[in-house]
Amino acid sequence: MPDQPSDLLEIFVHIPDDLGLTADQVTALKQKVTVEFVGLTVGAASPTQIVIQLVDGHRTPPGG
Amino acid sequence: MSELKVCLISPPTATELDDRELAETEAVRLIADAAPAGILTLAAVLEQRGIFPRIFNLNRLYYEYLRNRENRVDFCAFVSRKLEAESFDVFGFGTICSTYPLTIRIAREVKRAHPDAALVLGGPQASVVDVQTLRAFDFVDCVVRGEAENTFPQLLSALAGDGRLDPIPGITFRRRGEVVRNPNAPVIADLDELPLPAFHLYPELKDCRYVPLELGRGCPFACTFCSTNDFFRRRFRLKSPQRVIEQMSAIRALYGIAEFDLIHDMFTVDRKRVVAFCEALLACGERFVWGCSARTDCVDEELIALMARAGCRDIFFGVETGSGRLQRVIDKNLDLAEAARMIRSTDSHRIHTTVSLITGFPEETMEDLRQTVDFLTDSLRFDSVEPQLHLLAPLADTPLFSQHRDRLVLDDIFSDMAYQGWRQDPADRALIAAHPEIFPNFYSVPTPGLDRRHVKELRDFILNGMARFRWLLVALAQHRGGLLPVFEEWRTWRLKILKKDFAADSESIVYYSKIEFRREFLEFVRSHCLPTMGRAIPALRTLLAYEGSLDMADAAVAPEGLDGAPKLAQGLHVVELDSDYKEIIGRLREKESLDRIAARPVVVAIRKNAGKRFEVVQLSDLAGRILRLCDGRRSAAEIGDLLSLRGEDTAGVPPAKACAFALELLRQEGLIAA
Prior knowledge:
The complex is a heterodimer of chains A (64) and B (674).
Chain A lengths: L6 H8 L8 H10 L2 E7 L7 H8 L8
Chain B lengths: L5 E5 L9 H4 L2 H7 L4 H12 L5 E4 H10 L7 H10 L5 E5 L5 H14 L4 E5 H6 L1 H7 L5 E3 L3 H13 L10 E5 L2 E4 L29 E4 L1 E2 L10 H4 L5 E2 L2 H15 L3 E5 L7 H13 L5 E6 L6 H9 L2 E9 L3 H6 L6 H13 L3 E8 L6 H14 L5 E7 L7 H6 L21 H9 L17 H29 L2 H16 L6 H9 L1 H15 L7 H18 L12 E2 L4 E7 L1 H9 L9 E10 L5 E6 L1 H9 L6 H10 L9 H14 L3 E2 L1
Parallel strand pairs in B: 1-2, 1-3, 3-4, 4-5, 8-11, 11-12, 12-13, 13-14, 14-15
Antiparallel strand pairs in B: 5-6, 6-7, 9-10, 16-20, 17-18, 18-19
Helix pairs in contact in B: 3-9, 5-6, 12-13, 13-15, 19-20, 19-21, 19-23, 26-27
């Protein structure tokens, strides 16, 4: 969210009423514009995973 | 006694990471910056008795040393110089096994500079190698064994008074050249009596994300590889919920931190008390986030749900081995099917779950290893689960060590319980080689059924592979009958095609940590595996394309744009794929075949979430097309015109309006900024 509202945001703020869309149109459009969660993954270029493991290993026994 | 000047030195955990870049990474810093809870609790106890110790945090000093390395002095000398400015009567060092050689070297320098001060070691490692340490190192005057909060003040009283150490339980010391080991001290029965750790002596706490806080002590179980039993005498104790919550509230009020690593080796032994703690947290009117350790046979789905509601966001499960046979051999005795169910349950509550596994047991066969790797692979199917694979280290004074003490081997294939970073310091190694009885965790026990070097490389492969291409590994493992065969195939290909082998363990660990491994492994999948995948080829090709794009996602920066023009949100990376990525991941989660994934173009967006992980979303065709047009230069109206020109199906809504509507939806999803 930008600090200052832009013209575009003005448009956003008034959606959907100002666009004059009917409820059916809103429903139809929502079915066409979907964003589905797939999952979480880790980053590709993390060169230090091995170290993360090393350090995390210390959570196990206090002897470690 | 109040005039005694005491210096407490916390054990290092971040040292030996002599690669500056490595040491400065957020992951390492997160742990290295954590407040040394044990030393600070001891300091608080001393303050109650009118002694005001100085705290030296070796992690902090190490970073200071690392950043001013032009002086080129040894770290031990650097620490000693830091301590020279003040005079102390007593130096108390905390110790852990992985950095015990370094602690010993620092202690030697300190004693050299302060020959009249008493040098005392405490903590888990010195406690179990007390006699050996005093015999080997004449600069060590005394070891406080086990819980120090009662013993150490008694020792200080004696040092300030008549000097008689014989009546003090729990210490080992030298008398006229002979090492004397007094009987054990009783454990602290009521942990509520302990004060809040002296966090005011750790000003860096304000920069920490979380605070380690002790929930209790003592694990009643007796796993053969674990050194915890002896230190806390297997006496399970918990602080009362009221006491812990009171301390959490105080820390939040004083330092503004509401995230806690609640320390107990096995918090969930007593279900009723876990329930009481969670209910007290829910009733306290404050919201805290916390993590803890547990056994999978000491939780159930109902309890996990309650813990999640009460703010549990992290859990550590020591599963140790995926082999039912080895579970019995090491006296862990977990039901692995139940363990898998509990892992699924914590994941379903989005509790970040560490699944800790160990390989390299003396009795371990390749079949046991295969089962452990399979268990790890199945853990990878859950987003919130982070498996670990450790190489066994024989910790001092464990049943495992006692059984194999005469057969220890120093093969320079180190467990992560034995060193940090990529290389063993030569001075440390000389100490280790001279004193196997003091530093056994740097040695290995014979593994007739396993080639340790091979296993170590497997570990490097898996840990780095899952960090770099998690789902690709799962897919290959599923198709090839396990991750172990995938590793063997990869290793053979690497030797044959790349003609690359490792002369030493240190070469392997560096190779697998670098981006070169990622590139070469993706080439291996592309050229060697893909053609053999049969009906799963489209799915694997899509996974490859996705993984290939992640390099860019890591570095994704929002383009400069015109004011008001929609553009991709900061850090968002968009990739077009040939098959339904969501369907592929869904099948992998449920161990379903990847055969016959329908070819259809999809757009996937990847962004970093607040937890610094990547969140993946799949867009519908229209959403994907609109997102692709958001280059920060086209206005919303221009994007609408383009949709119109391209004849997009906008569900009967005029393209300009459809576009404005879609942009708002995408903005609400956090995918675009304007």
